[in-house]
Amino acid sequence: MKLILAVVQDQDSNRLSSALIDNNFRATKLASTGGFLKSGNTTFIIGVEDIRVDRALQVIKDNCKSRDQLVAPVSPMGGNADSYVPYPVEVEVGGATVFVLPVEQFFNF
Ligand code: 2BA
Q1: Contacts of 106 (CB under 8 A, 6+ apart)
Q2: CA of 96, closest atom in ligand 1
């Protein structure tokens, strides 16, 4: 068994939830916050039998789009002004950031 951790954009999370259910995957959604943008995203925890991992990854891929997002400049306020960028910077976020971990044991008591 594997544990898939998928960090996705909030805009994709409902569509991905529905697609996982349609494909008979069980998942838990956690509200999360990106360390860099400090804005909300959604982390899915999906426990999957080894032979269904590729299908789960395909469902995630098919339902998560990458988007450009503007990062507002943060005032240096007493910090080092050398690295201060006075205009918004565009970064490309997601599709999905996915980790696949081995599961040692699984219980459903
Ligand atoms: P954030 O940390 O808010 O990052 C949002 C996007 O900002 C990233 O998109 C990337 O394009 C950019 N970015 C992140 N750190 C950067 C940096 N130090 N310099 C320049 N640009 C940077 P994604 O790579 O698609 O990541 C989307 C979200 O996935 C991240 O949100 C974070 O919540 C999660 N994530 C990404 N890589 C991760 C990792 N190695 N471990 C844990 N979570 C991760």
Answers
A1: 1, 47
A2: 25
